[in-house]
Design a protein that fits this description.
Number of helices: 10
CATH class of the largest domain: Alpha Beta
CATH architecture of the largest domain: 3-Layer(aba) Sandwich
Distance between the termini: 50 Å
CATH topology of the largest domain: Rossmann fold
Mean pLDDT: 92
CATH superfamily of the largest domain: Class I glutamine amidotransferase (GATase) domain
Number of strands: 18
Largest sheet: 8 strands, mixed
Radius of gyration: 20 Å
Length: about 350
């Protein structure tokens, strides 16, 4: 009987100041492909606060990984265009999102991290594996974003937008981290709140996210200008069964304040509690049947009045940019997109 090949071993070091999107997307995508990814802290503690206040609990300390061998080592933030002029003369700068040269793969920045991660998967596993991962995630590599807006209303907030992002074990780490990163870049006050027994949440593909507070403490800070629920199973089911979160969402709806969800959370948090009544929404295609009218599943991001939804992890960056446009205006959304290298 043939034995299955051992998984590819990948090392991804993080340190204070690491770009959250550039780290989280390769971790997520490589683990989806079947790689054994070790997230290693380059400091002296497993808990690492990377950029924009995102807190990750690493798997190991980097110093403890020195004796091991890896099929791939991934370093976030290697080739951003802002730093190209710092390349030594022997390095040739290429105007491309991702460059593969022999056994070296480099990418430009946060918004191209998906393309970078897929290039790594192709090097380890081949093009077929890339297609298997990319299709259900609705991955696209073109820059820019669009949203279908129905029943347009102005979203109001006084001063700095205050945003609640609840998390639970099994959520999509990519969705949660992209939202926190992008909204904090735009200077929103984002509160990441755990619906579990402690602040450490283990996401769908093993990333251990450390929340800012427990959900009951976050509830004491209400009202919020916006509540966003990330998808991913079983996290979405946990959040859908959380009475405290449902109560916050219902108060948000009654006050005509914005709220939204991505993917599974639309079907398992908003729909069962009547939070989509009279609204059009989108979710992942596999869950469209759980929406009352089948949803607007041909659209990647849908805004209906004060409700914003999108379909899958591959739409999370577009979703974040759409949120910033609605809350802070198109100019701020453009500044965000430029910083992320997300313009087409």
């Amino acid at each position: 009987m043939a034995t299955s090949p051992s998984p590819k071993k990948v090392l991804l070091p993080i340190v204070a100041g690491t770009e959250p999107i550039e780290a989280s997307i390769p971790i997520d995508i490589l683990r989806r492909a079947g790689a054994n990814v070790t997230v290693a802290s380059a400091g002296d503690a497993l808990l690492v606060e990377i950029m924009y206040g995102v807190k990750i609990l690493a798997d190991e300390l980097l110093v403890d990984c020195a004796a091991a061998s890896y099929d791939l080592i991934v370093l976030p933030a290697t080739g951003h265009p802002w730093f190209v002029e710092k390349f030594p003369p022997k390095v040739t700068a290429v105007d491309a999102n991702v460059v593969v040269d022999g056994n070296a793969v480099t990418g430009t920045g946060p918004a191209t991290s998906m393309e970078f991660a897929m290039a790594l998967v192709e090097q380890l596993y081949g093009k077929e594996k890339v297609e298997q991962i990319a299709k259900p995630m609705l991955v696209r590599y073109e820059g820019g974003y669009s949203m279908k807006e129905l029943n347009s209303v102005e979203w109001h907030c006084s001063g700095t937008p205050k945003v609640l992002l609840p998390v639970a074990n099994g959520i999509e780490e990519m969705e949660a981290i992209i939202l926190v990163d992008a909204l904090r870049r735009a200077n929103a006050d984002v509160v990441v709140a755990s619906a579990e027994d402690g602040v450490v949440v283990t996401a769908r593909y093993g990333t251990r996210i450390v929340a800012d507070v427990m959900l009951d403490e976050a509830a004491d800070r209400a009202p919020f200008d916006l509540i966003i629920v990330p998808g991913g199973m079983p996290g979405a089911k946990t959040l859908g069964g959380c009475e405290q979160l449902v109560a916050l969402l219902k108060k948000q709806a009654e006050a005509n304040r914005p709220y939204g969800a991505i993917g599974a959370a639309t079907a398992h948090v908003l729909e069962p509690h009547g939070l989509l009544k009279g609204k059009k929404a989108t979710t992942c295609a596999s869950m469209a049947g759980l929406l009352a009218d089948g949803g607007e599943c041909e659209n990647r991001v849908v805004v209906d009045g004060n409700v914003i939804t999108s379909r899958s992890p591959g739409t999370a960056m577009e979703y974040a940019a759409a949120v910033v446009e609605k809350m802070m205006g198109r100019d701020e959304a453009r500044r965000l997109a430029e910083g992320l290298l997300f313009l087409s």
